[in-house]
Design brief:
This protein is about 25% helix and about 25% strand. The protein is an alpha/beta fold. It has two domains: about 200 residues, Alpha-Beta Complex (Quinone Oxidoreductase, Chain A, domain 1); about 140 residues, Rossmann fold. Helix 9 links the parallel strand 13 and strand 14. The structure holds nicotinamide-adenine-dinucleotide and zinc ion (ZN) (2 copies). Nicotinamide-adenine-dinucleotide binds next to helix 1, helix 6, strand 11 and helix 9.
Length: about 350
């Protein structure tokens, strides 16, 4: 089959790789209808996350049809349209029982093979899904593949970020980063009843998107700290939703949050130390929450939210390209060329 594979930082390859097959009874093979490129793929692409084997198939956001299944995956009918969380989960271990499926003891992240161990990704014609019955969600009738695609990562992750931040009715929120995850965090904060949502980024098109999703845009170059401190009677915001993953963003989050407030970080960090000190955290009575989104327990709710039509989620997809142009898609997304916010690969 054809796939987009990792070679080295900034070098991917579109070409022929071996077809995935059912290896374990719980596996299915899915024919990918649509796959997206995510900000998380960029950490690997840019060489900030290392360890990936050369030849690993990239990508962890996909929707497709089940074409082959093992004996323990009979609940999934051949031909059914499914959406996957970006990690697999068993549904039974200590963590899965506590809805922390992102830390499933048997789980794996799509698009991560290291030392020969792990799971190939979905920017390909076919993808193997282990633990399929407890991992995959069925796309409800009436939703097309592209609409359902956002449920498997960015929408669930943005929502999780808002939940982790304890956003509630009346909250004053700052969202850092207006990429797809940040925009979805705006949606999550709105759904949880936030009063005002400030959205911070340095890219004009993305700030405009944030405004369209109901946030007050603040450009990074317009002194966001002074602006938000002024807007909150000198206190700072109740909750910061950090969807960037850099020391600069962590620092900004601390500067924006009020004493007693919460920073919820879903941005993937690769630095070794916090950008603020324990003293600064203490002096703000800070709550800091972080981590990978447990998508599985949120999947049906996210599909319902998409189906409700309350938001025009399609707006965040700026580019639709064939899989054969996957390498170019990364360049466009990485460099934010041509107003790129999210790329979907199909066919
Ligand atoms: N925790 C999880 O489960 C999970 C899931 C998906 C993605 N992520 C992570 O979430 C982050 C965002 O993903 P995305 O797809 O939206 O990525 P993206 O790269 O499209 O968006 C990041 C945005 O942050 C902006 N930015 C950069 N520095 C900033 C700063 N100091 N302050 C404010 N904004 C700044 C950029 O201009 C960009 O618009 C990434 O780190 C990604 O890996 C985490
Ligand atoms: Zn993703
Ligand atoms: Zn588990």
């Amino acid at each position: 089959m054809k796939a987009v594979t990792f070679q080295e930082p900034y070098v991917l390859k579109y070409g022929e790789v071996a077809d995935p097959v059912v290896r374990e009874p719980g596996d299915v093979v899915v024919r990918v209808a649509v796959a997206a490129v995510c900000g998380s793929d960029l950490h690997v692409y840019r060489g900030h996350e290392t360890g990936l084997d050369v030849g690993t198939v990239m990508g962890h956001e996909f929707v497709g049809k089940v074409v082959e299944r093992g004996s323990a995956a009979s609940a999934l009918e051949i031909g059914s349209l499914v959406v996957s969380p970006f990690t697999t989960s068993c549904g039974e271990c200590f963590y899965c029982r506590r809805e922390l499926t992102a830390r499933c003891t048997q789980g794996a992240l799509f698009g991560w093979v290291e030392g020969g161990v792990g799971l190939h990704g979905a920017q390909a014609e076919l993808v193997r899904v282990p633990l399929a019955a407890s991992t995959l969600g069925r796309v409800p009738d009436g939703l097309d593949a592209e609409s359902a695609l956002l449920a498997g990562d960015v929408l669930a992750t943005g929502f999780y970020c808002a939940e982790s931040g304890g956003v509630e009715s009346g909250s004053v929120v700052a969202v850092l980063g207006c990429g797809p995850v940040g925009i979805m965090a705006i949606v999550g904060a709105r759904e949880l009843g936030a009063d005002v949502i400030y959205a911070i980024d340095g890219v004009a098109e993305r700030l405009e998107l944030a405004r369209e999703f109901g946030a007050v845009p603040v450009n990074l170059s317009d002194e966001p700290v002074a602006t938000l401190i002024d807007a909150t009677e000198g206190r700072g915001v109740d909750v910061v939703l950090e969807a960037v993953g850099s020391p600069q963003a962590s620092r900004l989050a601390l500067d924006l949050v009020r004493p007693g407030g919460t920073i919820a970080a879903v941005g993937v960090h690769t630095e070794e130390h916090f950008a603020f000190s324990p003293v600064e955290a203490y002096d703000k009575n800070l709550t800091y929450r972080a981590g990978r989104c447990p998508v599985r327990p949120r999947l049906e709710r996210m599909l319902d939210l998409i189906a409700s039509g309350r938001y025009d989620f399609g707006k965040i997809i700026s580019h639709r390209m064939p899989l054969s142009e996957g390498v170019r898609a990364y360049e466009i997304f990485d460099q934010k060329l041509d107003g790129c916010t999210k790329v979907v690969l199909a066919g």
